[in-house]
Fold this protein.
Amino acid sequence: MSVVALLEAEALDPQLELAELTEAARGDGAIVTFVGLARPESRDGNAVDAVVLDHHPTLTRQSLEDIAVACAERFDVSHVRVVHRRGTVPAGEPIVFAGASSIHRRAAFDAADYLMDRLKTEAVFWKREVGDDGAQWIEPTEADLADRDRWG
Amino acid sequence: MRIRLYGRLADAIAPEIDLAAAGCTVGDVRRRLAADHAAAAHSLARSSALIADRMVGDGQPVSESDELEFLPPVSGG
């Protein structure tokens, strides 16, 4: 069993993260991963150049770890890997990698789903979309909160 | 005392400010910041206060050596 939770200041490489998880998952039968990208368009339809993620010097990484550990304890998974960007992420580039491995696929699917629902609502970031129209602070949507609440 | 602000608050006020706060509580500091920065008042009212990474209530006395942080509701990742 391993739990990895990383906060990255530089570009995130999903292929590299998958390779790390695959290496750890020897003996498992399934890996499920999710990669979140910085959207090029806001909910209002405005062009977005970049997403900027402000973070807290200690609590942000701790929140990633808490969510990853809770995932590992809740599901029958062997390995959990969460890697999250901070700082300025240009549109189209990866913001988050969340993955889990398990002996059978269902636990890995559920674990990845759980990771993202909690990360989207509880990870300690303050996020804004920056474009020609200025900057717009983002908060979780009702749908994001409802997704998280599925897990009780 | 040193006050650290995040997200909308850092944007509206500053990431860090120093304030003379001897004899004040967390609530006093919160009210003073809101009075001085009306645009941030709503966010301040919704923010958690922390000292040394621990959440503190508005009744908590502060000392000049404390670093007080106000964290608005998070965006998530």
User: Anything to note?
Assistant: The mean pLDDT of chain B is 96. The first helix of chain B runs from residue 7 to 12. The two ends of chain B are 31 Å apart (CA to CA).
